[in-house]
Amino acid sequence: MTNIALELVNITKKFAHAETNSVTGVSLTINEGDFVTILGTSGSGKTTLLKMVNRIYESTSGDIFFYGENIKKLKVEDYRRKIGYVIQQIGLFPHMTVEQNIATVPKILHWNKEKINARVDELLKLVGLGDEHYKKRYPKQLSGGQQQRIGLARAMAADPQLMLMDEPFGAIDAITRQNLQDELINIQKKLNKTILFVTHDINEAFKLGDKIIIMDKGEVQQFDTPYNILFHPANDFVKQLIETENIINRLKVLRVENFVQPLTQPTKLADGVIHNDKFLDDVLAKFFETGKKRLVVIDDQEEPIGEISWDQFIQLKKIQDNVVRLDVQKKNIRRVNDHD
Amino acid sequence: MIHLMLDYLSKNFNVYLNALLTHIGISLIVMLIGIVIAIPFGVVCAKYVKLSESILGLFNLLRLIPSLAVLIVLMPVLGTGLVPAVIALTFLAFPAILINTCIGFTGINPSVIEAAKGMGMSKQRILFTIEFPLAFPMIITGIRTAAVEVIASATLAAYIGSGGLGDLIIIGLSLPSTAILLVGGLSVAILSIITDVILSITQKRLTKFI
């Protein structure tokens, strides 16, 4: 049975001088080990929701439970030390070296020197900055991408049970962002952390999330797997959101593992195989390359774990057709309105 | 002229040394008191934005009052001698340190503080391990400004009987003796420069992260 890492019950936030709620009545449950992305435009309440989880903002009403404990009953500093926090502006301490930055929480927790040093080395290797000379550098001597890697390492220093990430790659150039996304996926697979990740980038949300929370006007519009969001959008808002991307772009961010179907016939590897950590555009390419209508999905040990079929793509195509039709309708409506 | 100055120094070395040490002593005491009082006020000022405007305004105004005027105005209240001189000079040291402390704190990137909070650092820990070190370059700039101002104004404090290098200048003016005047004046100038250099080295050492 999976543990429940986080449970939000009817969470509402209204800021002191605001006229409307920033977040209204959010209830949801996040399991241990889930990588959940929160997707929404600015003003949708996604960041506010995230910041209520580590009590940077206090909720106006409702309760949040962290492994069953109401977070309002926990001492806020102790509670936050169990949570890794990464923000878009990174917020490294400019007067401390990379090493000192990463060691911040372990030092507060009174780890001994050897343990801290070992942990710093381990984390730097994990985020791809394993070279010895990085340790003694100051943040301003690093590029934006490198700084955010350190931000990530610092957040993970005391092995937190939960990671909160607020558009961490938002200010980083496109190529570096892709690398960081890929590495974050790897890190999450390796360490099985529970991650809540805020983004306004639909591709990022789909690429990273095992599940996606779609927010608008302070309310959750849909909380589901990328697959279900694409194939069973809960309402018009979600429909419109996923329609804004063309189909090839969407395939690029959908992971094969979310689309694996049980094997329908005995496997013949000659049928063509695809790794489960690949994306759907790779699958499409494979279909064209091999001319097959069915690919066997294999895992890291090269063991077959299921299949993925051409028919599933036809379904995607159907959605795309609907989109086009909807777009035409919308344009017609607009045209009619313009004439008024 | 240099010959005359050296002649005066060799004959009155004890008087000179006494004046120099008194001058340094007064300046040090004033700076210590100023730092101890002005920095906490500066921090408070940065934390409470509403307060800060009025406090900063008040001290910017105080800054405009000439040092001699402060000394003379305070004389009827505090009398003459070392203690009133120290008190008057502390008023002069105050604004630069306070204002710069306040600016140093408010200038810290808020995302750094948010990250620190998010990591579970207590307010106290954030204050001492994050905010103070980051505000330090500004604070020490304030201290430098104040120190130069205090060393210069301590000369004037001789008028209300505090002693120090100002005594030499007064003597030089009243005799009149250009040599004595120059010994006093140059000593003050050199003292100011040395102080500034020392503080600037300290500043560079402690702020290599910028």
What does this structure look like?
Chain B: Keywords: Membrane, Transmembrane, Transmembrane helix, Transport. Chain B: Its main location: membrane. The complex is a heterodimer of chains A (340) and B (210). Chain A has 13 helices and 13 strands. Chain A is of the alpha/beta class and 340 residues long. In chain A, the strands form 3 sheets. Chain A has a 6-stranded mixed sheet with strand order 6-7-8-3-9-10, with helices on both faces. A 4-stranded antiparallel sheet of chain A has the order 2-1-4-5, covered by helices on one side. In chain A, α5 crosses α6 (144-155), α8 (202-208) packs parallel to α11 and α11 (247-253) crosses α12 (280-290). Chain B has one domain: MetI-like fold, CATH 1.10.3720. Helices cover 86% and strands 0% of the residues of chain B. Chain B has helices at 2-11, 13-47, 49-64, 67-78, 82-106, 110-118, 123-157, 165-174, 178-206. The chains are: A alpha/beta (340), B mainly alpha (210). Chain A binds chain B through residues 54, 56, 76-83, 85, 87, 89-96, 104-105, 108, 138-140, 151, 154-155, 164, and chain B through 109, 111-122, 125, 130, 133-134, 207-210.
Question: What's the arrangement of secondary structure elements?
Answer:
The complex is a heterodimer of chains A (340) and B (210).
Chain A: E1 4-13, E2 23-31, E3 35-39, H1 46-53, E4 61-66, E5 69-70, H2 76-81, E6 83-87, H3 98-102, H4 104-108, H5 113-126, H6 144-155, E7 162-166, H7 174-191, E8 194-199, H8 202-208, E9 211-216, E10 219-224, H9 226-231, H10 236-243, H11 247-253, E11 273-275, H12 280-290, E12 294-298, E13 304-309, H13 310-339
Parallel strand pairs in A: 3-8, 3-9, 6-7, 7-8, 11-12
Antiparallel strand pairs in A: 1-2, 1-4, 4-5, 9-10, 12-13
Chain B: H1 2-11, H2 13-47, H3 49-64, H4 67-78, H5 82-106, H6 110-118, H7 123-157, H8 165-174, H9 178-206
Helix pairs in contact in B: 1-9, 2-3, 2-5, 2-7, 2-8, 3-5, 4-5, 5-7, 6-7, 7-8, 7-9, 8-9
